[in-house]
Design brief:
nine-stranded parallel sheet, globular, about 45% strand, mainly beta, about 210 residues
């Protein structure tokens, strides 16, 4: 396995594939202060069965698909921007089985679909912002036992936050919508904890 490497201040491009592919036990790698771009259904950055890797201070863009796809555990995404314009794939997707990841001080945007999807438990999102302008959600949480703290999710055309699983902790965060048929926060599961939340929807229902 290719472990414990550092990529700094670099530009990685692959219009038809992955700009960066950290695969199967290539653990403890760092990509920092770099730009990674793609333009296909392949993720610009794919973390696949790797641990303790870090992407920080970077810009990752893929108009055609995922900016970042995480199928791995115990990794950190920080101080970075993830962008997509796909109508079917999120800017950042944490897949089923990908736990104990941290997304911190980052920004994800997809105006045409969900900005962020979390489909695995025990992940943490902190001090981050997510933006969509779709009839879906800016942030979708589809698994239990995740933490979202000090974050912001905005979607004028749909849900700010869609909680589709229980036992999640949402605190000190703001969620906004401006759509009459949607809510700033949609609770589709039981046993979630919301603490010091701001939910705003001038055109419809807040929660």
């Amino acid at each position: 396995s290719a472990s414990s490497n550092v990529v700094t201040a670099s530009v990685l491009k692959s219009p038809a594939g992955h700009a960066a592919y950290l695969n199967f036990q290539s653990n403890g790698n760092t990509i920092q202060s770099s730009t990674m771009t793609g333009n296909s259904a392949n993720a610009a950055v794919n973390l696949n069965v790797v641990f303790n890797s870090t992407i920080t201070g970077s810009y990752i863009s893929n108009p055609g698909g995922y900016a970042v796809f995480v199928n791995a555990s115990s990794n950190t995404l920080s101080l970075s921007t993830f962008t997509s314009n796909s109508a079917t794939l999120a800017a950042l997707h944490v897949a089923v089985g990908a736990s104990y990841n941290l997304v911190s001080q980052s920004y994800a945007v997809n105006p045409d679909y969900q900005a962020v999807i979390i489909d695995a438990p025990y992940n943490t999102v902190s001090r981050s912002s997510f933006t969509s302008n779709s009839t879906l959600s800016a942030l979708f949480v589809g698994a239990s036992s995740n933490v979202v703290a000090q974050s912001y999710a905005s979607n004028p055309a749909g849900y700010g936050l869609f909680l589709n699983a229980g036992y999640n902790s949402i605190s000190q965060s703001t969620f906004t919508s401006n759509a009459a048929a949607y809510r700033a926060i949609f609770l589709n599961a039981a046993y979630n904890t919301l603490f010091r939340i701001m939910a705003s929807n001038p055109a419809g229902i807040a929660v």
